[in-house]
Amino acid sequence: MTHIITSLCIRDGSCVTVCPVECIVPGNPQDEWPLYYIDPETCIDCGACIPECPFHAIFPEDEVPEAFLAQGNEIQSAPVGTAGFEETFDGHDYEGNPVHLEATRRLAADEEVDLTADIQTNYDFFEDGPGYDALDD
After folding, report:
1. pLDDT score recorded for residue 22
2. Mean pLDDT, each 10-residue run in order, the chain (137 residues)
3. Measured between alpha carbons, how far is 39 from 42 in angstroms, rounded to an integer?
4. Measured between alpha carbons, how far is 66 from 87 in angstroms, rounded to an integer?
5. For residue 71, what are the CA distances in angstroms to 46, 91, 112?
6. How far apart (Å, rounded) are the C-alpha atoms in residues 93 and 119?
7. What number of CA atoms fall less than 13 Å from residue 122's CA on the CB side?
8. CATH T-level topology, domain 3-136
């Protein structure tokens, strides 16, 4: 069972530096694949990435919440063109590099969000998407 980076990811990247098997890659092109993704074939389920994520976006696959309850002001990202994701996000990653996401939205306090769709998106990235050979680079 792998770990999943959910749509609460805003490309901070701190998870990448702690992964002992280097299985976490950024999605590209970013407008279609806005998150970081964990290769399920390489992930050893060590969990080192979970506490590193300042946005609490990483879960073991069998614990991805179907009813994530937002504290308020969390940012959720999606591919460009996704209905309801009209805000842009400008911030910085863990190294201070600029991060710009075109399709985001802020969650309201007590808003309930189903993050389980992100499981299939992670697998799609590595099976059919650009992640198929992302680890060969």
Report:
1. 95
2. 94 96 93 93 96 97 96 95 96 95 96 95 85 59
3. 6
4. 24
5. 27, 20, 10
6. 23
7. 29
8. Alpha-Beta Plaits (3.30.70)
Distance CA 102, CA 89 (A): 7
Q: What is the DSSP letter of 60?
A: E
Other CB atoms within a 10 A radius of the CB of residue 103 amount to 20
CA nearest 100: which of 82, 113, 85, 87? Answer: 87
Spatial distance between the Cα atoms of 13 and 93, rounded to a whole number of angstroms: 6
- Going by C-alpha positions, the residue among 129, 132, 119, 130 that lies closest to residue 63 is 119
Q: Is there a contact between 99 and 92 (Cβ–Cβ < 8 Å)? A: yes
H-helix or E-strand spanning residue 5: strand 3-5
Amino acid 128: pLDDT: 79
Long-range contacts of 118-124 (CB under 8 A, 24+ apart): 118/4, 118/5, 118/6, 118/7, 118/35, 118/64, 119/4, 119/61, 119/64, 121/35, 122/2, 122/4, 122/5, 122/37, 122/38, 122/40, 123/40
